[in-house]
């Protein structure tokens, strides 16, 4: 039999212990055998290996290769600026590697956060004497003493309990405190045994004595910790796309290098000249600025999200959130306000709102004993916090006191002279108070437990016998209130004689009314759920609460709209096969209730196998494994445990579901923005490549040097690209369905637009400007020009200037890939983009018209007529791209028609 099925004496016997605890020698022996009561860390990869991996992923290897080729080319032919390019590429690798390692290092701190939840010291009985020891020194068989406010240090079986209630939210996800006693439990699952206390939970009220039966990694807490440490970490859609992009770029660059090596061979170039030429082709096709631009763009998106109460911990998660197709959300604190509130009263034969009773002062006076009952019958403690009085204890009892004070308009304090404590068998609490009219017993609890104790009922000013009809009316009201997801308590009272028998106070009571409590939904959640529906995002509630409560909240917030939703409990889920679970997830409306940590992971895994991008919310230890496994884990910042926060990718600063929807909006904008600046960056590869082809094929001086390519890739292009990354979300972005998981970041249409349209237009303008300066300077075909010849310097400067000028136009074209630049583009809404363009032009002026710029970049000042030649080229690019967009819109409209 399981330990929670045994009696206290049998439980002690099974652990070879006693009510006086273990002897010191036996405790030391067990400590050496079972180990410390700590969460062990699963042996993972050493930090040095994690560090190295950040520098050897596929895109980093491409950059290493490009840097190596650049250094080799400089070794063979120095003075061409290839060494500068090599050093710049190494800088990009180092910066990105260090940043990524720091993110990974922070994620590994989750286990340290798990240990923080366990108390440092605990009161333990050793050989009949109480002592204070470190929680880490607890062993199975130890007898410990617990009281209100204590954290539970290990999995324990109660031996004695006095009005003890425990908050299991961090382990089981249940929002309501649960009463615990020492009697044997018939529950099959130890997590729900009424005589067990789980490590990591906390005592809300009462006190007790318990025997430890599991410590460290053997506790339920430790099992969840193991799941958290070993849970598969999902690769975000963006990371997958960057890997794919890296492969495409590598294949494209190497293929072009090989092809043009053989072209050079066929033209009679020497082997080393041809090899250097091929290296230039390869390096020109590697977008060195892509990784820093992506990283910085994601970092800026995290700043915007933080302003909307979403704190991003892992940068790739920004875009992953925008791809989400399913949100598995916790209930308590996320969809609800995480506070108990009285929302309904059953008085005078009708269900009323507390505010309505407050307005009817006569009714409140008639039922004064009812409100006295709600205000006095509790085990709360009063304290002072920041100079203000505060009630500590069960949130439900706090809500009852506040409600009674509001309705009566005063606070009542009658001395308590006796108490019959609450336990799970009685399901009620009774307290006796000395009132001005003599002693009165006040009782509250479950209606089915109070009815047998009541002989009369209060209806208005009259107190009449409790007839079957009156009993039926209370039962019907209970069913109606429970159907709305309320937790219902009944109240009864009786005036006592002086010198009454304390053991006989719970008899001949007067039933006076009922209260319905709930954790109310956040008012903004309904609108956020509707926004998710419009955006094609499915919302699934996954909670540890009762299914009736979850269903009622689901209907109130609009998550459940069908008459017959699928409501699956943890016990039912355990019996479902993998295929049955996947089929169940196809339901339009679905709720999972009473689920454990491993089951939440199973739900996430099943959704991912159905090709969903899954976002998961949570706040407790039990949520941490699913948070880590999900495509994006979202922890609660206010009520969330450190464990959940460390396992998550994003933290909600206000614990509000509506903030998730705002973050999804930003995440979707990030993906669109990455495609924008990817188009922008790749476009400049073609005008950087074509000068090398012209140099090899047409025997002309090299139109663009390596250092000038570097000036574009890691200089003038960077800030405008970041400006594209900071573009605000489009107004209609949440009216579109999530992008398909198979949709590629770098697709055919993007490549065709960047390389074969915009890129060719820029290349034509650059080569035309180069030829214009050479022609104006009297150059004749076949004439060789030295690298410091003024005409050559001016010609390469014109080529570089044309590329940058065309990129200025291109950044605005890329900002509006699907609509005209002149209609609804909000050109002035993105200040960073405008500042980026201003910086780009300023840097161009520095490169061309300062001695320092001339020296470093091999440039020379160009005349005004060269600028006049280039401006029509830029205007032509604008006109042609606007014409292309107009044609695409017409073609799509024709197809739909």
Plain-language structure description:
With 897 residues, the protein is of the alpha+beta class. The protein has four domains: 3-34 and 120-223, Calcium-transporting ATPase, cytoplasmic transduction domain A (Distorted Sandwich), CATH 2.70.150; 310-337 and 522-663, HAD superfamily/HAD-like (Rossmann fold); 341-518, 3-Layer(aba) Sandwich (Calcium-transporting ATPase, cytoplasmic domain N); 684-897, Up-down Bundle (Calcium-transporting ATPase, transmembrane domain), CATH 1.20.1110. The chain has 34 helices and 26 strands. The strands form four sheets. Strands 10, 11, 14, 15, 16, 17, 18, 19 and 20 form a nine-stranded mixed sheet that branches. Strand 14 and strand 15 (428-435) form a beta hairpin. The longest helix has 33 residues, at 864-896. The chain is elongated. It starts with 7 loop residues before the first helix and ends with a helix.
Secondary-structure class:
alpha+beta
Mean pLDDT: 83
The CATH fourth-level homologous superfamily of the largest domain: Calcium-transporting ATPase, transmembrane domain
Number of domains: 4
Low-confidence stretches: none
Q: How does CATH name the architecture of the largest domain?
A: Up-down Bundle
Most strands sheet = 9 strands, mixed
Number of strands: 26
Cα-atom radius of gyration = 36 Å
Cα shape: elongated
Report the β-strand fraction as a percent range. 15-25%
Helix percent band: 40-55%
Query: How far apart lie the N and C ends?
Result: 72 Å
CATH domain fold name of the largest domain:
Calcium-transporting ATPase, transmembrane domain
- What would CATH call the class of the largest domain? Mainly Alpha
Q: What's the total helix number?
A: 34
